[in-house]
Task: structure prediction
Amino acid sequence: MEGNIGIPVAMEVDPSGQGSLSSCFFDPRWDNSISMEQIDPFDSTRSSIVSSPVASSLGAGEGDGGMIKELIGRLGVISSGSSGHVSPQPFLGHMSTNNSTNASSFTTPLNSPPKLSLSTMGHRIRGSFPPLSEDCLVPFATDPGFAERAARFSSLGSRDFAVGLDGKNARVSSSIVEGGDSWEGSSLSEQVHGGETGNVKKTQHVDVSAKKRKLVQRGKLDAVTPKGSEVSGGNNHTSTKKIKSCQAAEKEGSGKKPDEREAMAAREEKMQKHGKDSHSKQQEPPKDYIHVRARRGQATDSHSLAERVRREKISQRMKALQDLVPGCNKITGKALMLDEIINYVQSLQRQVEFLSMKLSTLNPRMDINMEAFLRKDIFQSRESILPTDSSPAHVFPYGLLPSHGTIAAISPVQLPENLLDAATTPIHRSPTIHFPHIEGFSTVPSQVLGVWEDDLQTVVQMGIAPNLQPISFHLGAGSTEPNHGQMKVES
Amino acid sequence: MTPPARLNASASSPCRLRTRFVLRFLKTLVKIKRSTPPPPSPSLSLTSSPEKIGRHSQRIKLAAYSSMARAVGQRRAWSRALMLKLKLSDKRKNRYRWLAARKMKQQKTLRRGCGRILATKRNRSEKGSPSRSCSGVDELRRLVPGGEAMDLGVLLEETAHFVRCLETQVRVMSIIADCFP
Result:
């Protein structure tokens, strides 16, 4: 606890903030002190803390400390612009209690405390404290990704500053990494040049929606424009409806490195920044999460997101159908497309009906040519049709068929042979028909198809005209063959 | 018998689907042919009365659809719905009237239950229902078996598969019809 107090105190008392801040910042107790339990006492203050304009709230002295706190606080609490003189305690308190949920998200922002130096610190510490656990704190200073995280949470507002802050933080963090103590200096320097950033910092609306995972995030990151000052002012308003947390608006610090900014922007995508971010300069595509992202200017609530997902799914399916239905390439629009699909399905069904009628009237007439074709087709079929092992045993014992053409060798019991014999006719008649089959089907299936068709023919003939048995002479079985054949077929 | 074309059990490819369908369809056709009383004069199909022809063609049509549905199996919602529908209607035409009557009661209950389920499903999937495109989606639901209970997204997917199967069916049937003089 004392650590907590010590640190903020140090920050408070230090007018410039840097020196003491640095010391406090790296105070080993800081991490510990920042633990949740220690922060508890500050809860009350925390709740009251509202984000206030960073610039205004924090004095120079508090700059550093305030910055840190600001960063921390940003994580989850919306800073409405309360005075920046947020005591570290409430700041911490906020952090601790604010949200455990934010904790994870806030960890990163904490990493770059230097960002807060900008002056935002003063104002209010948000509940980002919980994340400000020791592990958070340590990385806080050294995590260059802080900026990114912060950006992530700051998606809410149209704050471009978020991005800027990120950059600043990144820089600061990097500086911290380098020289620990110097971080304040760097932060201060940033603060100095990033005047606007400081202002911006004041209200970082950490995107509460970050918890939502489906934040609409937009390239608000672009809003990174360095105009921190105005950003800060507008931050609160621009933040999304979920604005409850302060966002690390600072992200968008003006001076931030472009790459940092981009990294931040990339992170921020996830965050929802629905405000019309005037500062947004770039739209970063969503990166890590598999979320649905709301586009700029679109609603971001879960219902509309789900609705959007559904609509996209439906449009995908419609496109697939467009490929399936011939002649639909030029049609645009769901209604027309649907009509076209319906027409096509109806036409297909009519075709089936017509073909069934044709088949019902067609079969009885197929036995006439069988004999003539049988002999010659047998040889042809044998060459074209390979024995198919996969075919049912009862059907295609091609192997049994005498390649030399003497069908008599076929045992009468084997229907397939009969069929094959009979099948030769159709094969011969329309050899081309089978070949298309072969093209469309795999080799085996086509053969099977061919055989089946022959089989069908044979069977049909047998069934319809038992007297006519073109194969009888082949098998010598006479009338018994059809029965066999039929029974075989039946099986 | 399992159709010989079941080369492998992986997801239905057009080739395998066609093969399965062809085999089943041919089997059914054979059955129908056998059961159809041969016309007095084999060479004359005109002797059959129009009603007979109509009934015969209807049977063949049903055989085509049922064989297609069975070829697809349980993988698709529309095939499941179609098989169920055919089974129910088939039961209704049961020869044994009393048995059929009893079954009808059960079927009615089943259908009512199904209908209720379908209706509730439909209600649940109201958002996908024709609120946006009024008659088009309704019509599509009527065309695709089991479409009443589907969400629009699912409906479109089933429609795509259904269209593919219909095309296969038409192609096979036309080839079969062409085979015979």
In short: The mean pLDDT of chain A is 51. The first strand of chain A starts at residue 250 and ends at 251. The first helix of chain A runs from residue 2 to 13. Chain A has 26 helices and one strand.
